Amino acid sequence: NHAYRHLVRAGKETPLPITFMYVPEEEIGSPTSRQMIVDLAKKNKYVLVTEPARDGGKVVTARNGRLKYDITVTGRPSHAGLRHMDGRSAIREMAHQILFLEGLTDYDRSITCSVGTISGGTLTNVVPAKCSITVDLRVPDMDAAEEIKAKVEGMTPVDPDCVLQIEGGVDRPPYEKFDGIEKLFQHAKGLAAEIGFDLQDLKTGGGSDGNFTGALGIPTLDGLGADGHGAHSHDEFIYYSSLVERCRLMIRLFETLE
């Protein structure tokens, strides 16, 4: 926005029309804006995403995909002291399932699983009849996505008296650096050199709305936002010193992409 404002104030026109899209729900998967992102991306030649930079200012040219699941176990309630043997603990059953899910993590293959939230039970003196979790899985490519999807959706209860309900699937598709992205990155790298810094790129395990556009085959350059550290932690911050060079790079991209 600041980059475009600079061009407007300077009375400059860009070679290509620019569409700005502000997505307030990206952190929860862009559930209501995803189709609009896809539709607008198809009408444009490039996609520039101002997600935070990575690892000292690197931009993102490929991303892992994400699968998201809501899983619920239904057991059977009973008095925890008087009739414990009649109950079927949903929490106990879910503990088995969580260990299986977390065991899908394979750092060598860039596959991770995180059970992010859990809830269950009613009172300490009642064998819990319900337990629910939300699960985040990251995969490097669609082959791995299909493999993990089959494993998760094929889960069965350890206790046959419990019922396992699994809902979800691929939330953000993965994408690799194809020729169009490589050319876009090299163009940005040349502009960065003119400005006075070395622009590097990487593939990241995090997801963004760039997953949707990169997976469509539209040249997407992500991580063009401010540099910083500690994403999603209590100590998250940006480097104030990175704002000027990132803004200057965006200005030059607007001025030169055609």
| Residues in β-strands, percent | 15-25%
Strand order of the largest sheet: 4-5-3-6
What structural class do helix, strand and pairing data support?
alpha/beta
**How many structural units, i.e. domains?**
2
Report the uncertain regions.
none
Number of helices: 7
CATH class of the largest domain: Alpha Beta
Helix content: 25-40%
Question: What's the number of extended β-strand segments?
Answer: 10
Write down the overall geometry.
elongated
> Termini distance?
19 Å
How does this structure look, described?
This protein is of the alpha/beta class. The protein folds into two domains: 2-64 and 174-256, 3-Layer(aba) Sandwich (Aminopeptidase), CATH 3.40.630; 65-172, Alpha-Beta Plaits (2-Layer Sandwich), CATH 3.30.70. It has helices at residues 2-9, 34-42, 90-102, 142-153, 179-195, 210-214, 242-256, and strands at residues 47-48, 59-63, 65-74, 112-120, 130-139, 163-172, 201-204, 220-221, 228-229, 237-238. The strands form four sheets. The protein has a four-stranded antiparallel β-sheet. A two-stranded parallel ribbon has the order 1-8. Strands 2-7 form a two-stranded parallel sheet. A hairpin with a 7-residue loop joins strand 9 (228-229) and strand 10 (237-238). Helix 1 (2-9) packs across helix 7 and helix 5 (179-195) crosses helix 7. It is elongated, with a radius of gyration of 23 Å. The model has no long low-confidence stretch (mean pLDDT 95).
